Amino acid sequence: MAAHVKGKILAVIGDEDTVVGFLLGGVGELNKARKPNYLIVDKNTAVTEIEEAFKTFAARDDIAIILINQHIAEQIRFTVDQHTASIPAVLEIPSKEAPYDPSKDSILNRARGLFNPEDFR
């Protein structure tokens, strides 16, 4: 499956294992300004750097989806929660170190708010 949808690409913000996995899958790109579509986050990465990368990816018109490890999204939860545009979509994904917790996923929680549980009975 190609990462391209009408010229749009994925962006990845994650720990080394996650980002390298996606890069091996072929999602790595540099735009015209030579800026990559990924950020590897480790224990030395400043929260401001993560936030800046997220905001930059969210503002780029060539990015359709931002994949972010949930434990990293937690560090910039306010910024992730403020992103309400449908494109780029933000998907919180698990990492080897941190399993996925649906209760922390702001997009999933927002989607839940759109539907009344009665609608599904």
UniProtKB/TrEMBL annotation:
Gene3D superfamilies, per the entry: ATPase, V1 complex, subunit F (3.40.50.10580)
Molecular-function annotations in GO: proton-transporting ATPase activity, rotational mechanism
GO cellular component: proton-transporting V-type ATPase, V1 domain
Top-rank taxon, per record: Eukaryota
InterPro entries: ATPase_V1-cplx_f_g_su, ATPase_V1-cplx_fsu_euk, ATPase_V1_fsu_sf
Assigned protein family: Belongs to the V-ATPase F subunit family.
Known function: Subunit of the V1 complex of vacuolar(H+)-ATPase (V-ATPase), a multisubunit enzyme composed of a peripheral complex (V1) that hydrolyzes ATP and a membrane integral complex (V0) that translocates protons. V-ATPase is responsible for acidifying and maintaining the pH of intracellular compartments.
Name of the protein in question: V-type proton ATPase subunit F
